[in-house]
Amino acid sequence: MPASPRRATLATVAASAGVSVATVSKVLNGRSDVAPATRSLVESLLRQHDYVAPSPRRGESAGTDTVEVQFDSYINAYSTELIQGLVNTGVELGVGVVVSLKREAARPGSWARELAAAGRRALIAVTSELTSGQLTALARARVPLVVIDPLNLPRARVTSVGSTNFAGGLAATQHLLGLGHRRIAYIGGPPSAACNQARLHGYRAALEAEGVSVPPCYTHFGHFRYQDGLEYGAAVLDLPEPPTAIFVGCDETALGVMEAARARGLRIPEDLSIVGFDDTQIARMVSPPLTTVRQPLREMGSVALRTALRLAAGEPIDSHHVELATELIVRGSTAEVTCSRQV
Q1: Alpha helices of the chain — where are they, by DSSP H?
Q2: Residue 35 pLDDT grade (very low, low, confident, very high; cuts 50, 70, 90)
Q3: Contact present, 184 and 218 (Cβ < 8 Å)
Q4: Which CATH superfamily includes the segment(s) 66-161+298-322?
Q5: β-pairing verdict for 327-329 and 291-294
Q6: Are 146 and 334 in contact (CB under 8 A)?
Q7: pLDDT tens digit string along 193-229?
């Protein structure tokens, strides 16, 4: 993160308002013995200066240190694997893990101040799209940040944790090519997401190495959700020349593709092979069990928490971006292509 600006103090705000430090303190504590006009002025300057009340020093409070983990919208199978890894490591280290959802309407300054005022030692953001304003607000509030699977990296030195997405996309597609498939579609996540781009490039690299071209209608991008699998699975399966295999950017979307195939009377894997990505619990529970690329999600959560705590303690870190290895897990949703489906 960038060098942190000097933290505003009560004296700074008091000098700007032309009042005493005691008056500013009264406003912060909600005291009623302050004139409305003065209160409004002080509150405005507190926001302007991005004032953050100092957090209690370690040992001054009987509470447990906490780190906030913030997700973009909703908790899914991918999220629960990360949370399990974060919580397990939090228990091991004696650190509390607080899970929240991103508030789109929150102003960067007030959002960061609330995190600091709540005593959060750090923030771990999962698949979040971050703005420079949010990064600056976190730096001013002295809240270290670690991002898991970032959608974007507006600054090069934002600390992040991910997996070898390119290698995973390459392995998934090579597996399908090895089974004889040549008509292979890709259904992924947001086009701008770094993890989606890496998986897509791995998919394309494997096909190009075999001299296999990709029709434009064979690639679709959504939001890593079940509904995307239903919609885009239907789109590619209804083509005049549908794919015999589909590489899908996450397990949840893959389940949607499986349902779209079933709705069309297609059998998996006899008529259509499907490979997912993540290796969440649902990949093992679905029928047939899903061939997928394993992301070490629990380990990613553990690494993110340990890294966040090192940043909070002012300790050096080995790298601003860590990638953990992916692994292809072959199950029952893929099979050799039949001669009748190659035609």
Answers
A1: 10-17, 21-28, 36-48, 77-93, 108-117, 132-140, 165-178, 194-209, 226-237, 251-263, 281-285, 297-312, 339-342
A2: confident
A3: yes
A4: Response regulator (3.40.50.2300)
A5: antiparallel
A6: no
A7: 889 999 999 999 999 999 999 999 999 999 999 999 9
Contacts 24+ apart (CB under 8 A), 340-343: 341/244, 341/271, 342/180, 342/182, 342/244
Q: Identify which of 210, 248, 208 has the alpha carbon closest to the alpha carbon of residue 231.
A: 248
pLDDT tens-digit profile of 53-105?
Answer: 655 444 344 457 899 999 987 788 999 999 999 999 999 999 999 999 887 76
Round the CA-based radius of gyration of the chain to a whole number and report it.
25
pLDDT tens digits, 227-274: 999 999 999 999 999 999 999 999 999 999 999 999 999 999 999 999
Q: Which residue has the tokens 């690299």?
A: 205
Measured distance CA(34)–CA(42) in Å, rounded: 10
- Give pTM, 2 decimals: 0.79
What is the CATH number that goes with domain 165-296+328-342?
3.40.50.2300
Contact 60, 45 (CB under 8 A): no
pLDDT of 25 higher than 60 = yes
What burial class does residue 326 get, using C-beta atoms within 10 Å of its C-beta: 0-12 exposed, 13-18 middle, 19+ buried? Answer: buried
DSSP letter at 325 equals P
Contacts for 213 with CB less than 8 Å, ≥ 6 apart:
207
Inter-residue contact 185 to 219 (CB < 8 Å): yes
Does this chain's domain 66-161+298-322 share its CATH topology with 165-296+328-342?
A: yes
242 membership: H or E segment, kind and range = none
